[in-house]
């Protein structure tokens, strides 16, 4: 059977190697002369044992003894290596065309002329870890290592997993790093989410990195990394990606995209496609494909219910605009909208990247088109614009219903150029921010104070409501672990072994929902986490060995599920748009209990964090490397042509303000009256 290679404690493939692992563990004591690959396999199995991952048939005492045997044999093997041995093993691991046999090798003189075992290449990094651990640099000179790297074209990244090789062989590692433009991707990888980190040699200067970046742009055809350079990286160190580099990258991107589009036009295009549609006929909408992302803009309904409040309600209840808990649905929710596997297709992302997906872009397109259609229907049938509805809300609705007087909001005329209208809308957005903060802080909007106030950040806009948004307590390791175990598609609890094979679902909760699961189905390493969930009253084990969830636990799990999927819960809304008061009260009571336990926290702001993140992604370029920065473009003197898409974004953003402010005022009035 194929030898075992450890990747991570969350690696689902471990389950399929238990037969092999068990065999090696039982035979380690009797293996008096382990060969090279035996020792590297010992090293890998020791990694899972170190993390307390092992079959339930082994006791803790047995595991302790086996680990001791592994460590002893590993130490003896590497301590006895000669320079000749080390060079030979490097040759075996890194030369895929070598005629030497690593499988039966004990000493170079014993080598057989058979092909190298291809699986042994998986152990390259492990051998270099041992090279460092046992300080084999004392036996291998810089000249020796240079010859090996040159002979077998070993990629430099193998030697950058720590600073060990850069310290022991400084000139060599620097020379090899700067000799290949692709190595600049290793530097960028340090600022990419979920990528391996590489220790770039300290003896490489800023000027040398800049020159390597220029060379990389000239030579590279990797659009993903070129786009990272073009957008810039906010937290980058040791290099400034200036305007010249960004422009150089932009021109290279345009050149490559032109070549790509020309090649694609000559053949069928295969990609990730999903139908997006706006319907104005209810019958066609109801009979359309279920797989479509679709919105109905019902012309007859709009004409029949044409009051300003009815039209604003129509926008508020538009599909895909807000989720069931009345959190803005236009933001990106990776845990809900894409799997771990599909996120691999999105290319590299910096740590300050706003994570997007195919689904995110499709719903974004859908809602923009819906607003465009709604605007057209308003104009054609009622002689109105969305701007008129927004103006009505601030000018009349708030005064009539809440006795709030906003300062006048002046919209550009519809005959003005598109870019003038758009700039005007973003100016209004800033005015609303300032006025809202005055209303929160002072209880009224004073014209003179407004003129002196600076524009607050979106994140800093306050709320009338106490405990409005509920979040995960990021400082509490317990709740983070609970959510990963329950809902992640990478949880090792998603798969259990049964008599006739395996049961697997996308999450542990789905496994419990779809199957009758017994405690005994889980292996020892899984039971540690099952016991953890039981001890924390997340799940229950019955006397008959069945794992189940009681009503109170289910309420808690639904709350956790919403937070895992969307990052937040609105305390004042149920988990469905139409919720019974008794259900909402039970939900709030449960949230209060969890807050007391320190698993969750709350914040009182106009927008939740996912909503603020989305608005900042659209408006500003200070928060995210890949932000659209539309507002900055219009308010900072850029020169550009009319862009209808920007206008639609601006209208959507102002409508979001209307809906969120209306929610605040209604709930504040309701709970204020209730308290009185």
Automatic annotation (TrEMBL):
Lineage, uppermost ranks: Bacteria, Bacillati, Bacillota, Bacilli, Lactobacillales
Annotated organism of origin: Pediococcus pentosaceus (strain ATCC 25745 / CCUG 21536 / LMG 10740 / 183-1w)
Domain of life: Bacteria
Protein name: Uncharacterized protein
């Amino acid at each position: 059977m194929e030898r075992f290679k450890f990747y991570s404690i969350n690696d689902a493939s471990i389950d399929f190697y238990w037969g092999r692992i068990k065999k090696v563990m039982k035979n380690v004591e009797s293996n008096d002369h382990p060969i090279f690959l035996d020792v590297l396999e010992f090293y890998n199995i020791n990694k899972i044992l170190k993390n307390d991952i092992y079959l339930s048939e082994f006791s803790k005492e047995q595991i302790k003894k086996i680990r001791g045997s592994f460590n002893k044999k590993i130490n003896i093997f590497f301590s006895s290596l000669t320079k000749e041995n080390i060079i030979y093993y490097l040759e075996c691991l890194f030369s895929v065309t070598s005629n030497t046999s690593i499988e039966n090798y004990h000493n170079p003189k014993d080598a057989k002329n058979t092909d190298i075992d291809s699986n042994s290449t998986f152990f390259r990094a492990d051998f270099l870890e041992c090279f460092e651990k046992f300080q084999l640099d004392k036996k291998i000179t810089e000249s020796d290592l240079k010859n090996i790297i040159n002979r077998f074209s070993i990629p430099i990244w193998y030697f950058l997993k720590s600073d060990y090789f850069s310290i022991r062989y400084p000139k060599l590692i620097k020379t090899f790093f700067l000799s290949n433009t692709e190595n600049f991707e290793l530097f960028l990888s340090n600022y990419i989410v979920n990528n391996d980190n590489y220790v770039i040699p300290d003896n490489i200067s800023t000027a040398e990195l800049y020159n390597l970046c220029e060379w990389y742009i000239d030579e590279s055809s990797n659009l993903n990394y070129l786009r990272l350079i073009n957008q810039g990286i906010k937290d980058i160190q040791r290099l400034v990606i200036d305007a010249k580099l960004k422009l150089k990258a932009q021109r290279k991107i345009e050149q490559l995209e032109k070549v790509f589009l020309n090649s694609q036009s000559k053949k069928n295009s295969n990609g990730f496609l999903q139908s997006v549609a706006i319907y104005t006929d209810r019958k066609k909408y109801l009979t359309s494909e279920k797989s479509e992302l679709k919105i109905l803009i019902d012309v007859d309904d709009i004409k029949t219910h044409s009051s300003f409040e009815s039209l604003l309600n129509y926008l508020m209840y538009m599909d895909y605009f807000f989720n069931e808990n009345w959190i803005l649905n236009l933001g990106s929710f990776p845990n809900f909208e894409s799997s771990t596997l599909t996120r691999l297709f999105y290319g590299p992302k910096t740590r300050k990247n706003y994570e997007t997906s195919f689904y995110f872009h499709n719903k974004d397109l859908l809602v923009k088109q819906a607003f465009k259609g709604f605007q057209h229907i308003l104009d054609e049938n009622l002689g109105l614009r969305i701007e008129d509805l927004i103006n009505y809300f601030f000018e009349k609705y708030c005064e009539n219903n809440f006795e709030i007087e906003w300062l006048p909001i002046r919209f550009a005329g519809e005959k003005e150029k598109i870019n003038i209208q758009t700039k005007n809308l973003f100016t209004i957005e800033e005015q609303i921010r300032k006025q809202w903060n005055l209303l929160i802080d002072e209880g009224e909007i004073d014209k003179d104070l407004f003129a002196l106030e600076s524009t607050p950040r979106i994140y800093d806009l306050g709320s009338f409501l106490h405990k409005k948004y509920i979040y995960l307590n990021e400082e509490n390791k317990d709740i983070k672990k609970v959510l990963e175990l329950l809902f992640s598609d990478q949880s090792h609890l998603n798969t259990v072994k049964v008599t006739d094979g395996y049961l697997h679902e996308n999450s542990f909760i789905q496994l419990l929902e779809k199957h009758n699961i017994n405690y005994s189905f889980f292996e020892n390493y899984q039971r540690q986490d099952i016991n953890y969930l039981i001890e924390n009253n997340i799940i229950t084990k019955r006397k008959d060995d069945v794992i189940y969830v009681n009503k109170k636990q289910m309420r808690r799990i639904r709350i956790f599920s919403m937070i895992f999927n969307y990052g937040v819960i609105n305390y004042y809304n149920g988990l469905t748009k139409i919720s019974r008061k008794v259900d909402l009260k039970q939900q709030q009571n449960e949230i209060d209990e969890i807050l007391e336990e320190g698993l969750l926290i709350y914040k009182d702001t106009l927008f939740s964090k996912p909503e603020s993140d989305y608005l900042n992604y659209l408006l500003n370029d200070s928060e995210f490397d890949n932000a659209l920065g539309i507002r900055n473009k219009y308010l900072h003197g850029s020169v550009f042509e009319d862009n209808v898409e920007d206008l639609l974004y601006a209208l959507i953003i102002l409508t979001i303000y209307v809906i969120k402010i209306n929610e605040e005022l209604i709930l504040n009035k309701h709970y204020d009256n209730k308290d009185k």
